Amino acid sequence: MEVREAAPSDASAIAEIVRELVGAFGERPAPAERLQAFVAAAIDGRSGLSLFVAYQGGVLAGLVSMAAVATTRDAGLFGYIDDLYVRPAFRGHGVGKALLAKAITSAEARGLCELRLATDGADPKLLSFHEGAGFRRSGAWLVRPVVRDWSGRRRP
Ligand SMILES: CC(C)(COP(=O)(O)OP(=O)(O)OC[C@H]1O[C@@H](n2cnc3c(N)ncnc32)[C@H](O)[C@@H]1OP(=O)(O)O)[C@@H](O)C(=O)NCCC(=O)NCCS
Fold this sequence. Notes:
single chain, alpha+beta, Aminopeptidase, 7-stranded mixed β-sheet, 31% strand, globular, binds coenzyme A
């Protein structure tokens, strides 16, 4: 499995998996042209959204996206996980775990204070998956503290 930050050559495959994941949540994806432009901007670092991809056997198996958001609570930035998605055929083999781990190391490297994601918590398996990665419920969020900085030192 290869997990890495998205590159320009991933743009079409990412647009395709985004259409798939938006549909899986019962919503309608953005129009194709807008989505393509948005993905290209994210990959170029122009939209504030970081994209990480997982490939297996040359196929895009999954994706995680994260945006840095400013918060007064910690007087800093947290990482908001917008999408975490693994294609059904690739589930149960550690792809989701590897994508979350990549988002966590990226958050550490960028000095973010924590990661947050929103979920209704209705699926106990999904909840234990996130808890396994260090997330804990906090109000409407699942929150995972980022305890180390880019050099591996514990954050004060
Ligand atoms: C959640 C998701 C990303 C996990 O990806 P994955 O590659 O299957 O995850 P891993 O292989 O790393 O971990 C598998 C674990 O996730 C658990 N899991 C999480 N969500 C699950 C679900 N909805 N159904 C079944 N198992 C699930 C499994 O129980 C398994 O636990 P185990 O290792 O103890 O057996 C994937 O199921 C997915 O894309 N789901 C649809 C989108 C979604 O719900 N995203 C999360 C939004 S917050």
